[in-house]
Amino acid sequence: MAEAAEEARHVWSHKARIALFLSAMRHFREALLREGICVEYLALDRNGGARSLAEALASSVGRLGPDRLIVVEPGEWRVEQALREAAVRLGRPLEIRPDRHFYCSREEFAAYARERRALRLEFFYRAQRHKHGVLMDGRDPEGGRWNFDAANRESFGKDGPGAVPRPRRFAPDGLTAAVLRLVEERFPEHPGDLDTFAWPVTREQALEALDDFIMYRLPWFGAHQDAMWTGEPFLSHSLLSAALNLKLLDPREVVSAAELAYRDGYAPLAAVEGFIRQILGWREYVRGIYWTFMPEYLHRNHLDARQPLPGFYWTGDTRMACLREVVRQTLRYGYAHHIQRLMVTGLFALLLGVRPAEVHQWYLAVYVDAVEWVELPNTLGMAQYADGGVMASKPYAASGKYIQRMSNYCAGCAFRPEKAAGADACPFTTLYWDFLMRHEARLRANPRMRPQVNNLARLDGALRQAIQEQAARIREECRSAPAAPVLD
Ligand SMILES: Cc1cc2nc3c(=O)[nH]c(=O)nc-3n(C[C@H](O)[C@H](O)[C@H](O)COP(=O)(O)OP(=O)(O)OC[C@H]3O[C@@H](n4cnc5c(N)ncnc54)[C@H](O)[C@@H]3O)c2cc1C
Ligand code: SF4
Questions:
Q1: Given CA atoms 286, 292, 298, 303 in this order, what sign does their dihedral have?
Q2: Does one domain contain both 328 and 287?
Q3: Is the pTM of this model over 0.85?
Q4: Nearest protein Cα to ligand 1, atom 46
Q5: Which ligand approaches the C-alpha of residue 415 most closely?
Q6: Which residue range forms the structural domain that includes residue 382?
């Protein structure tokens, strides 16, 4: 095992993301040592650590002289390539073993993809439910329906979410505290706070976090899954993504625990189906997309977006209340829930026309759960439509009125979500109409976008021109906001 500085610097990683990976690795090393397993571990604060994983491997091979190398499939194409190249350089055969922490292997998904013209989540998810016997009633879906999405899109009323049980958080132990100090020393210029760090870093803690979610928040997960509220970063979400991605939890045990809660009458079917769909459906599906389409997927830019990422993505300093809230929360915790990622930060970048590669680097940097196999398809495919429809059947384009419906952000904002032009027009709404105009021909060809594009007919010539001019000004202002750091 090696702590390589390159892995923290490859993107401008949030301090909590670096700390979480290092702390989980160090705790895992301790657990292996307790089992009597010999571990070769290169720490960042011993002998300067290693610059890259390939360098660490070369140094260990030199010292230990193994006949062959065996690794589990990495979570990133770049790392797999680096290991393959290092093995050739070192003259050792490399065996890459399947990662058993997934339901669907890379080969199984590739075979599934070869047989289909379009890869839609819904059909993949149903096939997975069948195959693994999850939430099934014989050959039929439990409750007679595969999908309870319609019941899972509610906003909170005027009074907000009420008293949502707080998620279980874990105070840093000695090992984690040492890692937090190391991160502050080695990566002081990186974004994000460390004083809120309370993520599970061991298998035992991850299991406690799972129990806590199933017991106290799963029953409320479904209905308000897409809703957002100022000052409430976590709501009824599970906060289990990082523990799953670090393999502290197996997706099968998470899915089984949720299904059991339904069968035992603790949680309603709509909530449990909504949750299981995220893990057995989306999580497996995006991994399949990643490995099937890499490495060319990384360079896709279907909408020819060329704007730089606005500097306020790294600070939260903007008058737009929704973006301010989500970016500041992200910097504080390294966490935002799915709709905050998709329909606030993701939506703004889509409408503004930010280069997908820059959007990707931001998402890979700022979330504690970010690993490329899951982050890239969500960002490039789902949020930016840069893959031209491999993942999503249409762009997730919406105006500020969507954010107004799903949150209370607009109530505390200088702008008005219903206005597309004028000094107090919501930038999301201006850019939404401008997006439809800029891409009208392309979007009209997509039957699912046609109703939205047809609404352009409601705008008279003067309003169209005012929107286009205002959108150009917004793009100019965003361009002159402080630049993002230059990455290695
Ligand atoms: C632009 C963008 C970037 C994202 N980047 C990441 C990332 O780097 N790492 C990551 O794990 N997730 C990512 N997601 C997916 C999702 O937003 C997070 O998994 C989720 O918000 C994590 O919070 P949670 O554990 O509280 O999730 P919950 O809302 O409680 O959902 C339960 C679990 O389902 C899984 N899940 C839910 N949605 C997705 C999805 N779309 N794709 C894959 N798994 C999903 C996660 O493992 C999650 O823990 C991204 C989504 C978007 C739109
Ligand atoms: S008015 Fe527009 S910018 Fe302001 S919070 Fe609402 S959606 Fe965001």
A1: negative
A2: no
A3: yes
A4: 241
A5: 2
A6: 311-480
